[in-house]
Amino acid sequence: MNMAKKKSKKRNYKKAKKIVLGILIAYLAILAVVYAGGVFYYSGHFYPGSKINGLDSAGKTVEEVERDIEGQIASFELVIQEREDKTESISASQIGMEYHKDDTVKKLKKQQNPFTWFLSFAHHKDYTMSAATSYDEEALNQAVDALACMQDANTTQPQNAQIQDNGTSYVIVPEVLGTALDKEKTK
User: To 5 degrees, how large is the angle CA 132–CA 183–CA 74?
Assistant: First the structure.
């Protein structure tokens, strides 16, 4: 009977050992599949937490990021803050501004090693790149010339402070900053 108990215990121990080993192998197999899936996915997509020129690029392909940059440039607007709390703007469409795709985004993607994708969850990366753009210089000049601040009728010339006799005493008349621009320097 003692011998039967020992064999039963040995059998239970071997059975438990096989179950634990099976669970461990299944766990490792699942981890390997998840890791391989991550390597495959992040070989074509940007890591989580990736930003390019402030645009969220996490999980996006190079083509999707380029489309986002193109959209950002198409919606670009130069806002001109003028004196007397006035603002005017020139949009990208007014000056024919366009994004020209090059391999810059591709190079940024190649900096990310897909085999280390799991480390990206702890380290977010902000990339800065120069986007190749062009615009129509003549259209820009026309847009600047059309601004209200560039029209002589809408400007006030600056004046120095001066002393003035009001009949009973002298008073200081404050300077006028004015809104007139040097048009060439402004352009």
Answer: 25
- For residue 33, the SS3 value is helix
The first and second tokens of residue 145, run together, are 């010339």
Other Cβ atoms closer than 10 A to 8: 10
Whole-angstrom Cα distance, residue 140 to residue 97?
9
* Beta pairing class for 50-52 and 125-127: parallel
CA 147 to chain centre: 29
Can you tell me whether residue 97 is helix, strand or coil? coil
pLDDT tens across the length of the chain (187 residues): 566 666 666 677 788 888 888 999 999 999 999 999 999 999 999 999 899 988 999 999 999 999 999 999 999 999 998 888 889 999 999 999 999 988 899 999 999 999 999 888 888 888 888 888 999 999 999 999 898 888 888 888 888 988 988 888 998 989 888 888 887 887 7
Integer-rounded Cα radius of gyration of the chain: 34
**Cα distance between residue 88 and residue 58, in whole Å:** 34
